[in-house]
Amino acid sequence: MSELFWPIVFLAVGLLLLVLELFVPSGGFIGFSALVCLGLGVWHAFQSSQRLGMIFVLVDFIAVPTTAVGAFRLWARSPLGRRFALTPPELDEVDVSHADRRVHDLVGVDGRALTPLHPCGHVEIRGRRYDGMAEAGLISEGSRVRVVRIRSNQVVVRTLDVPATAERPSLADDPFSTPVDLGAEA
């Protein structure tokens, strides 16, 4: 029997048990047995010679991760793995979750302010609610607005309602507009 027989046998059994650990629920017993077999393989290799032991340590550092990755890939294709793995989303689900693509299409579209924009609030555009920001000043609730640009995934709006200019009171109605005679000239 060659000096390589037992190290190779323990290495092979250890790698096989490592793969088996993914497919058979054992509470870690099979995985622990795999580690013991891998350790025994290295120990037998060092019993033969130090050089052979270092070679088996190197082989373990390469073979164990490679086997684990291959086992996980194999497990993901198994019926058990497919039950645990998530399915990729459909294209329409991805479009719904990325609303920022649609927000850029709103520039130039009219809507209305759902809340007062001081300067931030909510606006309704095409029947949907968006976070909005007034371009300048304050916009009252219910005002008609137009999207002028998108900033940080937030619509920047300008009011379309022309604010009513307040009538200035005439000077004749203002009692303080006429000078007061204090009688100092006498």
UniProtKB/TrEMBL annotation:
<feature type="transmembrane region" description="Helical">
    <location>
        <begin position="29"/>
        <end position="46"/>
    </location>
</feature>
<keyword id="KW-0472">Membrane</keyword>
<dbReference type="InterPro" id="IPR012340">
    <property type="entry name" value="NA-bd_OB-fold"/>
</dbReference>
<dbReference type="InterPro" id="IPR002810">
    <property type="entry name" value="NfeD-like_C"/>
</dbReference>
<feature type="domain" description="NfeD-like C-terminal">
    <location>
        <begin position="104"/>
        <end position="158"/>
    </location>
</feature>
<dbReference type="Pfam" id="PF01957">
    <property type="entry name" value="NfeD"/>
</dbReference>
<feature type="transmembrane region" description="Helical">
    <location>
        <begin position="52"/>
        <end position="76"/>
    </location>
</feature>
<keyword id="KW-0812">Transmembrane</keyword>
<dbReference type="InterPro" id="IPR052165">
    <property type="entry name" value="Membrane_assoc_protease"/>
</dbReference>
<keyword id="KW-1133">Transmembrane helix</keyword>
<feature type="transmembrane region" description="Helical">
    <location>
        <begin position="6"/>
        <end position="24"/>
    </location>
</feature>
<protein>
    <submittedName>
        <fullName>NfeD family protein</fullName>
    </submittedName>
</protein>
